[in-house]
Hints:
570 residues; mainly alpha; 2 domains; 2 strands
Amino acid sequence: MNPDPGLPQLDFSSGTPGNPDSDDNSGDQTEDPEMDPVVVWVPSGRRLVSGMLGLNAVLLGAALLAGERVPPQGLTHQEPQVFMLLLMGTSSLWVLWYLLWAHKQPGICPHKDHHAGGITVTGVLMLFAAFSLLLHVFRAGYLIMMMECKPVVTVISPFIEAPFLALQTYLLWAHSKDCIHKHKIITRSGLMLVLSADLLLWLNAVTEDTIHEEIELEKAFSNTTDGDTSGLAGKANSTLCACKASAACLAFRKGYEILYPFNMEYYLMASCMIYVMWKNVGRRMSPGPHHVAQKLTLRVSYQGGVIFGLVSGALVLIAGITVFILYQVWVTDDELRFTAFLLFYGYHLVVMPLMSACSLAGMLVHRRERRAKEAGQNPTRSLDVMLLVAAALGQFSLSYFSLVAALAAGTSGLLGELDLSYSLLTLLELILQNIFIIEGLHRHPSLLAKKKETRRRNLFKLKKKVTVEDEKKTDMSMLEGNAPAAAPENDGKKRWTKTAIQEICTFLILCNVMLWVIPAFGVHPQFENGLGKQFFGFSTWFILVNLGQPLSVFYRMHSVGALMELLISA
């Protein structure tokens, strides 16, 4: 028996009945179930089919990657690469179909989620996409020059991955706010295929260590005496066969190595935006002022009178750029390598306590303001908080593994003690900054909303008790006496708390930008100083660093976007 179309339907996929922001049927009480065939054969949720499709695709791809990397022999017929090429090809065809369909029917998205695809997020995605496309240029040149030593599937992979990346980038740039209400099954399934491809490409990039193994073997072969090269001869000959010691091949490989982190960051960020699009399929947005997109400009800091946060953050940024340049120059020199590590750790041991103190001060200001909690849910806000916590796990894991290595193998001198201090301060800074950002994201935009609502209700009760004449006198007395006294007090509170939050957010934004730049452009002391690599082994430590560092870089970038939102809404 079909349910009455005039009654509100329960949304089992989100668990919230009648929530206008939850799912397809939520907030729409006139939709006929016969118009949507999914209700008939998928009664438990609208996202079940596409969710199962994506889950199976990710699990199959992860099993193939594990089958190639984990066993000693591994898969011998390039099954993971073939599967990912098919997945990217299918996803590219769907994205192309969607773009053409959206171009021919501009009215397919009656609702827009203006929380999704913000200016900051989209701009950073474009930057990562540009670097990723440049990476594929270097990768294609590198693979073509070593074609004799690589399988055909690996050689053609950049020529399939680059169009997939370009099409997905345009999709996210032009349609990240879409709430689709037509062809929901195809749209959800297509978005889930794209999301599965992003996750598998990120997992492949994390576990792919052939370039770094090649570099390590070349270093070991060059540092080994002639009498000790017998054990490395076969492997070194394979690497020389791959690169042939030519300048062009080494240049392509160096460009590929430098741009490697940007590709991992792109797929992480793109998968998050695709997930929001998937959640927004069929979603109906109620009109309201909170749907107006906020444009971030420098006027926010200028009009708010932000001085100390901007100046101190600029000093941190200038010092960080200087440290970054000196580190990159000195770390390649054996005589200055130790000084480069001292410079890196010294900079972070100064910046981390300052960031921790600012986050703690921001938490105290939040307590002082007593803002109401923002009601309602939307997938973008929930995803923002989830990503902050999940991305922080990358740096958490690196810090704890470095801590274990230092405790087990000993600090072994000054560098070990600095690395231990750096890990502990990083843990403290991440915890305090996460609390400050998450509390700020959940506050209501109106200052003292609960207090004003209570005062309004008390005033309404008072008006009902007094007579008409007394009510007029009361109103006049409030206008003449109480209002001028109360307004400056609230304005004064709003002024200093707003300034404090803006100063703190500006300083933390610039600090996080610098802490994003340093590891994103190849400064990885946890991998290069040898402590974790010596204790856990090359392969294990390489996977740990490749898992932790991209998440850490993503966390810094995502916290910048969240802090900008706090800066605007202060």
